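User: Last request for today: this protein with uridine-5'-diphosphate, please.
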Amino acid sequence: MEDKPARRRLVLVPASAQGHISPMMQLAKALHLKGFSITIAQTKFNYFNPSDDFTDFQFITIPESLPESDFENLRPVLFLLKLNKECQESFKDCLGQLLLQQSNEISGVIYDEYMYFAGAVAKEFNLPNVIFSTTNATAFVCRSVFEELDANNVLAPLKDSKGKQDELVPGLHPLRIKDLPTSKIASLDKILELYKNTVDKGTASSVIINTSSCLESSSLSWLQQEGLDIPVYPIGPLHMVASTSTSLFEENKSCIEWLNKQKQDSVIFVSLGSLALIDINEAIETALGLDNSNQHFLWVIRPGSIRGSEWIEHLPEEFSKMVSGRGYVVKWAPQKEVLAHPAVGGFWSHCGWNSTLESIGEGVPMICRPFSADQNVNARYLECVWRIGIQVEGELDRGVVERAVKRLMVEEEGDEMRKRAVSLKEKLRASVRSGGSSHNSLEEFVHFMSTL
Ligand code: UDP
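Assistant: Here's the final one, the structure of the complex with uridine-5'-diphosphate:
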């Protein structure tokens, strides 16, 4: 009897955050469906406990000895720089052992762009290694030219709080200097160091990006034709390609029952992702603005996401009245299900890339309140390129919140955005269907891996 051919194995290395783990697991599932065996190599930080969805996968832990306090206090930029140094040797041991043990041939290593140590190690073993960008193509372009922008003094306004950050970045229209992916809690030097490593394609054989060409054709063309000399595969939105359950937190599904009682397009969903923090004052002004807008709202307030509070104990007493009237608050929601619900007519978001893709994927227009990194880029594109978002900038007070919510939920301007969002949703859905650009790109990637 002939032996069955061994499945080729891919080793995937996600970064330790909800917004990175979810798309990596979606990618893993998509590749598993294409016939690859999958090993997930993760660190202890935000360890993803596999659900029944992943029984065929192998999970291994990359040993390291960084304290949890580093994860809390240094993330993202300084923590990532440290983690990459720390993991290089231990991942070498992990991969070495896998190569010895595996009856399946290892075809390559796919690593989150922020886990670049994995690319260097794969290279040492002569294994094909693939960068996986969980952010969008435009943010990848920004990181690729960051050093050049710095050398040309374009970033100077970011070094000085009074600098003119409203000016457009040459060559990156419509991004302004303040829309570039930066972080208020890390120095520009450290950000430059990190970005240099994330876009170092010297070792990579290709790049996968969780985007679709219908969203970012010019950024993708630049990466494919000028920026990178390796193949680029836009195969997103991955949550539409392979749906999986990947939540690190417990989802409160009672909000779906509450949504079932609301009218079509009448609810604004408010959620700032898994990492963003706000001050108590901003939380109070948001609550009062939502109340004054007279709209129904579903608000995710993650425990610890209001600085100095465990949850909502410091919000004013009127808050509970408000919530029992027009609002509903949960600690964590089944976000994709919420956005797909007919009652949801708008999304107040920090514009993380997953949230952005999930919202566009359901045709829901957004109010954009970005905090850092690629969120700024996404917000700018939502407002100025796809024209399905309203960006709220500067200090937040109740008047600003009320105005933005009314513009999106009540006024004609919001209806126009909703129509554009629905049309973009159709394009996204077409791109992942058979014959669509993301679908074809995934096929090409699978073929590319089999030729290496
Ligand atoms: N999310 C969720 N429930 C919530 C809030 C967020 O499931 O109550 C998910 C959301 O669907 C998205 C991810 O968490 O997939 C957040 O990723 P994103 O890139 O938007 O932001 P980040 O958390 O990385 O800042």
